[in-house]
Amino acid sequence: MKSWPGSTRRPLDLLKSQFFANVSHELRTPLSLILGPVDRLLRRAALDEEAQHDLLIVQRNARLLHRHVNDLLDIARLDAGRMVMQYARTDLAALARLAASHFETLAADRNIRYGVHAPDALPAEADVEKIERVLINLLSNAFKFTPQGGDVRLVLDGHSGRARFRVQDSGPGVPESMREAIFERFRQAEGGMQRRHGGTGLGLAIVREFVSLHGGTVNVTEAPGGGALFTLDLPLAAPAGVPVSLEPPRPYEQAAYPALDELRQHPERFSSGQSPDGVASRILVVEDNPDMNAFLTECLSPHYRITRAFDGREGLEKALANPPDLILADVMMPGLSGDRMVEELRRYRLLDDVPIVMLTAKADDALRLKLLRHGVQDYIHKPFSVGEVLARVGGLLSERHRTGRRLLQSEERYHSLFESIDQGFCIIEVLFDASAKPVDYRFLETNPSFKQHTGLHDAVGKRIRELVPLQEEHWFETYGRIALTGEPERFINQAMFVGQRWYDVYAFRVGRPEERKVAVLFNDITERKQAEESLRQLNATLEQRVAERTELAETRTRQLQALAVELIEAEERERRRAAHLLHEDLQQVLAGARFHLQAAFQSPPPELTAVVQLLDEAIAKSRRLSNELSPPVLNHSGLVAGLHWLARQMEEQFGLRIELGANSEHRLESSSLKVFMFRAVQELLLNIVKHAGVKSARVDLCGSDHNLAITVSDAGRGFDPNLLDFSETETGLGLLSLRERARYIGGRLVIDSAPGQGSRLTLTVPLSLLKDDQTQPSAPVVERPVSLSQPNAAGGFDKSIRVLFADDHKVMRQGLLLLVAKHADIQVVGEAANGREAYELALRLKPDVIVMDISMPEMDGIEATQRIKAELPSVRVIGLSMHEDEQLARTMRQAGAEAFVSKTASSAELLKAIYGFDPGK
Length: 921
Hints:
The chain is built from 27 helices and 27 strands. The radius of gyration is 44 Å and the shape is flat. The protein is an alpha/beta fold.
C-alpha cells in the first residue's frame, strides 16, 4: 500500500473518521424508527402468527444492523479521540455472571457445556458499559466457533491489583499466524466465499481498543485440549486523578440481543408447497442464513415443492440424491461455497440440465461472469423483491418444461430417423476386464442399414468377439476411450476381418457414464478408399509439376511486388527531389534574402516594401507547392499527422470537410508503405471532390500486428463498382489503377457503393511486406561551418546570450548572423550544418540558446533536439522551419524545444524567442 506523506495522512484520517461518524449517525436514526414501531407492534396481542413471524425477522435483522452501526461509530470515536471513559465502582464478578447469563439458553440449545468461574465479589473501578461489551463480544465469538456438544468457559480471578478474564472454547482455534491479525479492524480469521459467519470484522478490534483504554491487555493463545483461549488483563483501580462515580450505571442488557439473534436458530414457518395433484416442480433452496432460507421457502412453497439445505456440501448431496427441477443458491456459504458447489454439480451429467439461480449481496462482475461460464442460468442481487424471484424462477422452469417437450419430440424423430437413414447405426455396451481394459463390446441396438454395411446378421445381444473372433484391437481401444471420457470421436478405420472394409465412423457416449454405452454412426467407404488409392498414384506424378509451377508463380509474384514497391519509391523520390529543390534551394534563398533586407533596414524604405511583399509571396507559393509534392509532416510526424494535414488542405482548397478517426498512432517502419497509404487517401478524396457531390467525408485508420487498413467513405452519389471492370474512363474515378497497385504489393481495395447510396472504400495492406524497408532520399552535400567564437583569456565567454545556429543552408545562416550582429548582448558561439554536428557542438560549447532548423541531413532537428535536451536540459532550443505547420511545431515542442518560429516570420519574433519570449504562446 502506498505511504502517504505525514502532511496529508492526518487530514485523510480525520476525513475518514468524520465519514464513519456521519454515516453511523445517519443510519441510527432510521434504524431507531424501524425498531421502535416493530417493538410496539410485537407487544400487541392481536397479531396473527404470520404477522408476528415476519416482524420478528425484521426486529432481529434491524438489531444486527444496529450492532454493526454502533461498531462503526465506536471506531470513528476512537479514531477522533472522542471516546470518553466513565469510571464507576462496580463488582466485576457480578458483571461477568450477568454477561454470561445471556448465553445460557443458547448453550442448552446447542448441548454446549458452559461454565462460569468467578469469586463471590471482585470490586473494581472500570467503565461498566465497555467491560460488558468486551465480555459479550468474547463470549459471542466463542459460541460462534464452538460446535455442538463442545465447551465454553468464562473464568475470572484477581491478584496483585489486577483482574484477569479468560474465555476458552473448544472450537478450531486461531492459527498462530492470525493471532495478531484478528485484532485488526475489518480482519477475520476466515474469509472469502466459504466463511461460516458474517460480520464486519470489528468485534475483536473494539475489544482490544476498549481494553487498551482501561490500561489493560488482551491476547489469544491455544487452549488446553485445543480451541482458542482469550486472556484479558485489567487494573482494578482507575488511573490517579480520574473521576470515579460511586453509583455504577445499570448494565445495558440489550447489548447482547444482536449477538444472540445472530447465533440462534429461529423457528420457521412455511407450507409444504405440495400441489393437490403432486406434480409441482421441486426447488432446492441452498442458503446458510436461517432467516433468508425460511423467507425463500415461504415465498416459493405456495407454488413449488421445496427441499432445503444450509451449506454447499449439503446442497450438493441433496441434489445428487434426488435431482431437483431448479436450484436456488447463495454464493457465500460455509463448507462449500456457492460457486464451488456449481462447479461440482456440473460434473454430473444427471444434473446437466438443472437450471441454477445464484443469490448474492456482492456486486462482483468477475464472479458473475465466472458463474455464468460454469453453467449458472441467472444471477439475482440482494436485496430483491419476491416478485422478481418468482418471475425468474417461473421463467426458467417454463423453459425447462418446453425443453423437455422438445426432447420428447426429438426422441420420436430419432426413432423414425434410426429406421430410415442409409448410414449404419448401432448402440454398443463396451465390456472391460478386471484391469479396466476394454476387451469386447455387445450390440444393444442396430438399424436396418447395419446389416448392409457390415454383413453381420442378428447382431443384437451378441458380442463382437462372437461374430468376428479376430476383430482388431484398435476398435476396442477407441470405443473404450469414448465410453470412459465421454469425448466423441470421428475417425476412419479398416476392418480387415469384415470383408477388408473401410469405415468412416462417428462415435459418442450415450446414457449415464457408468453404463459404458457408445452410439456408432458409420458409412462403408471401401469404394472411396480404392478410388483414393488410384488418385494417390496419379497425384504423385502431378505434385512435382504443381510444385514447380507454384514456385515459378510465387517467384513472379515476389518480383511483381518488388517492382510495385520500387515504382512507389521512385515516384516519391521524384516528388521529394522536386520538393527538396523548392525548399532547400529556392525557399532558403528567398528567406535568406528577406533576412538580409531585415538586417539592412530596420524599417524598409517604400521602394523596398514591394520587394519584401514579392519575396513573401514567392516563399508562400514555393512552400505550398513543396508541401503538396512531399508534406514534411508526413516524414517527421507519421501517417496520422500527415492525414490531419491532408484534411486541412482538402478543406482549404476544395471546401471538403474531413472527419478523421484513428484507433492509435501508427508508427510505420516502412516509408514506402506510409507514402503509398497517404497518396491513396489523397487520390480517393480527390475522387470524392470530383464525383461525389458532397462537402464532407470520413477517413478511418485502424491496424493490427499484421495489417493496416484505411477506409474512406462519403454519403454522395455513389456508383456501380462493376463498371470498374469494363470502362474506367466512363466512371472517371481512377480506382482500377489503385486497386491493381494495392494487389501488386499484397493488399486489396474493397469497394462498397451503389448509385444514390454513397461509397465506402477500404484499402488494406500487409505490414510484413515492407517492414524492413528503410529507403530514404539521399542527403545533399552541404558546407560544414566551424565554430565562430573563441573563449576569452579567462577560459570563458563574456556574459551575454551565447547562441548556436544549426541550419544546412549557408545563405540562411548568413542571414541569421546578420540579424543578430547588431545586438551586443547576443554572441554567436558556433554554426552547424546538420543535426549531428549541432549535437556535437552543443556538448562541447554548451550554448545558452540553439536556433535549430527542423529539416537537415544526417540527423534532423527533432532528433537532435531530443538528444541535446537529454544531455543539457538547461539549454533552450528554438525550432526553425520554412513550414508553418501546427503538427511540426507540436512535434518539435514534444522533442524539447521551447519555441517554434517560421523562417518567414519577422525578425522581431526570432529575437523575442532568443531573449526568452515564446512567440507561439
